[in-house]
Amino acid sequence: MADQAYEIISTSEYQKRTRGRGRGRTSKYSALGKEAENLGSGKVIALSGTKNQVVSIRNFFKRNYGNDFVVRSVSGDDGNYDIYIQRAES
């Protein structure tokens, strides 16, 4: 392995580099994930969506961030859901 070039990187850098899983395709929720990364303590992202979007957003955050974020939803009067994303409490 002496001839092979390599570098030691942090776990967070690894996660950034592999977030797209090397396929060149990113999730339509990637922008939401980047926004959540910058989310300060005591702040919550609030949006509205369908039941399918709630499930997709939950799956996206679980797959890409593990237990770092909590995604909650509340059924609205119009058939859509209010979706809330916040940092998990340590």
Give a written overview of the molecule.
This protein is α+β, with helices and mostly antiparallel strands and 90 residues long. The protein has a domain at 29-87: Alpha-Beta Plaits (2-Layer Sandwich), CATH 3.30.70. The protein is 34% helix and 21% strand. It contains 3 helices and 3 strands, in the order ααβαββ. It has helices spanning 11-18, 30-37, 51-65, and strands spanning 45-49, 69-75, 81-87. A 3-stranded antiparallel beta sheet has the order 1-3-2, with helices on one face.
Compact summary:
By secondary structure, the protein is of the alpha+beta class. The protein has 3 helices and 3 strands; from the N terminus they run ααβαββ. The protein has a domain at 29-87: Alpha-Beta Plaits (2-Layer Sandwich).
Mean pLDDT: 87
Q: What's the level 1 CATH class of one domain?
A: Alpha Beta
CATH architecture of one domain: 2-Layer Sandwich
- Give a count of the beta strands, DSSP E runs of length 2 or more: 3
Class inferred from helices and paired strands: alpha+beta
